[in-house]
Amino acid sequence: MSLMKIGVVGYGLIGGSMGLALKKYTSHTVYAFEKSREVIAYIEKNSLADGAFLPESEKISECDIIFIGLYPGKTVDFIKENKERFKDNAIICDLCGVKKYVVENIPENIRFIGAHPMAGKEVNGIENADCDLFLNASFLITVDKSTDEEALKIIKGLAIKVGFFKVVETTPENHDRMITFTSQLPHILSVAYVLQDAFKKCDGFYAGSFKDMARVAKINPNLWEELFKINKGILTEQLDEYVNTLLNIKAMILQEDKELYKTLVKSRELKEWQDENYKN
Fold it and tell me: pLDDT digits over 108-118, tens only?
């Protein structure tokens, strides 16, 4: 792969981590694009990119690849507003947590790859970016009949170089359904957990399970509100299923049903199966 100029728009936790990983693990030139002059100054002071610019900078037109680390709505807006400024044949790759909405709303004739790094933290912002955030994580890429095979190969190659354990190809629709279960639903459950009356009365009474349940309630409300609303159809379906499961377990407890023991055994077996089969 020849050396390229790679732009990262939105140099926060995910975008910044992508830029830092590209700097550490490849020889490509990495440009950061940020609307905040304070963030640009921070990037320059700490040498977190090979150059830091406002999004309207002409440097965007030099980039062979542009990773977009913005919220879904802002991602679509940025592509629409800047499509005429992109370099001919540039690859545009978004990194946000829903895919069907983005894919359906980007303009035609964009060499686009939809991606989602399966990594993160409970904090956000460039000061929390980490060049090794993606080590041993999976990198999801959505494909359809319009996907450019050469662009796909290039993005997959970069993903492996910056530390991803594996690249998983899927459709935008399947991505959103699976991510609802593995990411959005757990965040909602954590939010609901910390909203219980007992939460502020737990000092001295908690250990690992309490911390595990509460961890991702330290949420970025602006981002997650947008993700939940965009994906509301699938999300509410899975919430209904989860609520029904809770009600069934509640009934088993109240009725001292023998099925309760069988349910707990099944739960343990499923977790053991996951431990054996999911390696990253």
Answer: 899 999 999 99
> How many CA atoms are closer than 13 Å to the CA of 5, on its beta-carbon side?
16
What number of CA atoms fall less than 13 Å from residue 110's CA on the CB side? Answer: 25
Tokens of 190: 């954590």
pLDDT of residue 121: 82
Question: If you average pLDDT over residues 128-138, what whole number do you get?
Answer: 95
> What is the model's pLDDT at position 196?
96
Strand ordering across the sheet containing 91-94: 51-53, 29-33, 5-9, 65-68, 91-94, 112-117, 138-142, 166-170
Pull the structure tokens for residue 225: 């509100």
- Residue 120 pLDDT more than 90? no
Query: Comparing C-alpha atoms, which of 225, 114, 217 is closest to residue 173?
Result: 114
| Tokens 């431990």 found at | 275
Give the Cα separation of 213 and 193 in Å (integer).
7
φ/ψ of residue 191, rounded to 5? -60, -45
- Phi first, then psi, for residue 33 (nearest 5°) are -120, 120
Q: Are the CB atoms for 120 and 96 separated by under 8 Å?
A: no
Amino acid at 73: G
Q: Tell me the C-alpha distance between 74 and 270, whole Å.
A: 39
> What is the C-alpha separation between 256 and 20, in angstroms, rounded?
55
pLDDT of residue 224 exceeding 90: yes
In sequence order, the β-bridge partners of residue 169 are 141
Structure tokens at 43: 């990037």
CA pair distance 137, 239, nearest whole angstrom: 26
Measure the CA angle with vertex 176, ends 216 and 102; round to 5°: 105
Amino acid at 250: K
